[in-house]
Amino acid sequence: MRQRGARGFTLLELVLVLALVALASLLAAAALTGGFDGMRLRSAAKEVAAQLRFTRAQAIATGEPQRFTLDPRAHRWTAPRDRSGELPSQLALAVVGAREVQPEADVGAILFFADGASTGGRVELALGDAAWRVEVAWLTGQVRATPVAGDPP
Q: Rounded distance, CA 63 to CA 146, Å?
């Protein structure tokens, strides 16, 4: 009697199915979150919010005022401890903050104090019809990033 080989899938078939599932998941995620531009915008807003929170934490930890700056023309931000970064050039950026803490004209800044409070302010990021707003409460220094409905900055 001849014994038949075990039936199953080849490794190649399994890899192809996994690749197709991954591709379908990526496309579905992009469609549900506003596409790749939407993901880029949300990621940039969350990065700005995280750096503002870091700046606040540094002010509390050191007991000295700390400043976060954002240059909308250069799409660059700076934070304490020599942190800096760039935002995608496709984004429209606007910064609203206290003029007294701006290092130079057209560069926005938000200052955090040792007790966690701040000068307050807002960073608006937009791409196409989508926009996000990162707000800093002046009294508490709380940082909040939210999507904005309506006109971009």
A: 29
